[in-house]
Amino acid sequence: MKKFFEDFKRDIKFKGAGPGHALTEDTRKTIENKSKGPEKPRRPPAEEAQMAAAAALTRLEIKQHRGRSTTGSNSLRNEVKKELTAEAAFPEAQTRNNQGPSNAVKEDRSSFSVTGVYFICPLTNASISKSERDSHIKEAILMKFADDPVRASIMMIHTFNKDKEKVKIACETLGKYIDNICNNPSEEKYRKIKLQNKIFQERISELEGTHEFLQSIGFERKTLQVAGQENEEDYYVLNEEFLNTFEELRQYKSELLSAEPVRAQLDRRIQIFRPSPQAAKFELPSDFYNLTADEIKREQLMRSEAVDRMTKLRTKAMRERDEQRELKKYNYTLLRVRFPDGYILQGTFYARERVLALREFIHSVLERDWIPFELMAPGGQKLKDESAMFIEVGLVPAALLTLTWDAEVLANLEAAGQSHTNMLKQELLSDIQTLV
Fold this sequence. Notes:
13% strand, disordered N terminus, elongated
């Protein structure tokens, strides 16, 4: 990002903006006023501020493209670069606009076992909090328009629109447009799409990303005279320079139809702790619950009455109702595994992940990932069913499990003169922490 701003900072002067530059009147006046006097030195904006500012301006550019003629992907790139260049000169205002209310109430997480639930963005590889997940992914997709508008628009279609059936229909219709062009290269009528066409309006127009996709593959928005009539109507018309790119168009269609929404992956937030009597103590933030703060408090009160309730005779329907209620409480779970040498492994999981996921997680941190082991739940029962969900076996919203090695394998290691201590990978042990 810094290099990008450096490459274009010479173009940010007002006199070089040109009539096509999408700057507001206030911004123009600000630039004029600043050019009259000596400019005060300012610190460069933070990386996060640059990304947020650039994404916000990209959103503005996308909205503008919906309502005016374009010249395809090069125009998209150039307009985005102009907007980012303008923001490079004045980052403070955009940074302030992207900040939340100063008096927002935040949860004090300093005493919690973990600060929250985090995710890995597949586009930036950044670890982001649950509350930032959706906005970060949107900004990351919008940022891709400067480099690859076609694939960025495909990501928009599949990620920004939540109705999967509408997305499927829209993509199939766009694919049909491409097929008609490629199969009938000499037919001019297939290179035009009437914006007021009923099919276009119902299937495509209202979905985010569809206009950007058409523009990025070479369609321009034009107002044309209707044959035999006096009135004019709006169309998307394929630029002639894209008439010989049929293979590329077919490739774009294939990617459009096969794409999936961009989804962040759950960050396990792996941690290794020294042996500690605090291993079974958990304090979790609200991220782990599918409940409000008041509901969490009520749940804590209800737990104190659990023993009395269990002693009462309940019908099957009552038990099933309680079980279903339990299943809806939790979205995530914090699991700790205590090894025979006392070290504690911690990771975050979905409440509906299966025991197999935990076993794979454990194998991934072992120096000898082939060594078999058994896991015991807090009550002492062995977790033998790898297909069972954590929420089904009571390992939510947090639990401490005990790991034991296969005795026969350990005996063989000893007979071979190999140590079976420090089974965890050394790079993890170098960052070991203490539970408090």
